[in-house]
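Long-time lurker, finally posting.

We've been working with WW domain-containing protein (Aphanomyces astaci) and I want a structural starting point before designing mutants. I don't trust myself to interpret raw outputs, so I'm hoping someone here can both generate the structure tokens and explain anything notable. Sequence follows.
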Amino acid sequence: MYLRASRLESMASQLAFREYFHGAIANSASSAIATTWRRHRRRKVARLEALSAAAVVVQTIYRSQRTQRWFRKYVASVRRSATSIQRMVRSRLARNHAKTHVAAMKKVVEEAKAAQWSQAALRVQVAWRKKKGRMSLHLRRRAQEAEAARRMTSAKRIQITQKVAARHAAAKRIQHKFRAYRATRLGKAMLATLKLSRRKRERRQAKQKIIAEYLVDSAAAREQEHALMIKVTSNHNAVQGEKDRKTAEAAAAKAERRRLALLAAETTVRHPPQTPLKNKTAGKKGKGEWVEAWDDATNRKYVYNTKTGESKWS
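Top reply, 14 upvotes:
Generated this for you. Predicted structure of WW domain-containing protein:
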């Protein structure tokens, strides 16, 4: 309606149009303002919801990446610790094995030298005993010495076996304790991760509950606003109808008064005016002199002929 009024050429027509359609123009303007405001509110709420959802997604991704980085660092540190422990144990075992092997080799060399010397001595002794006739005693002593040597070798082998078994048992015990420690640490880390995920789920559920409550309240507010707008519209229509009725009645009364005034003017005999407004000739070939006059009863001008006594409405 406002644009239609603006398209009129004359300012008087625009003022008359705006005065006559004042209610419709105000109604359309209020409707346009309300529509624009609701559109702005919807866009703002949608933008806030999108920003909130994006923030939740970014926080979730960031926290998951941080947890993954921490877990990878923890696994790498555990692996480095296990590798260092294994390296220390293996180096200790290798050193001990090397020492044992070197000692055994030295002993073998010494025994070989002693055996060589013993063989040389035995040969001399055998030759001497053969010569002296004491071979039986020599053979018996040799048998005793061989038995003693065999028992000594068996005892040494048993001791070495026991030492190796003890080292293996100690290594197994160390591995068992380390694996138990690593399992305990891993269990604690998994428990902490589970608690963290549970807290995240609880916070997410709380946020969803708050959003649901907000949506319910918003729906109730929108329903109340809609009911209020319906009530305001109905009141406005009633007021506008009353104004239109009064305007129509006033126009009808005005038309009736004008008709009655015209009828009274036509039936009333005009007298010569006391104060003529302007002398006016009908032309060069007129019948007489005409004078313009004013009628206070009808608030209109009329023309009176001073010679013939005729009167005409202008």
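Before you design anything, note these points.
The radius of gyration is 64 Å.
The first strand starts at residue 278 and ends at 281.
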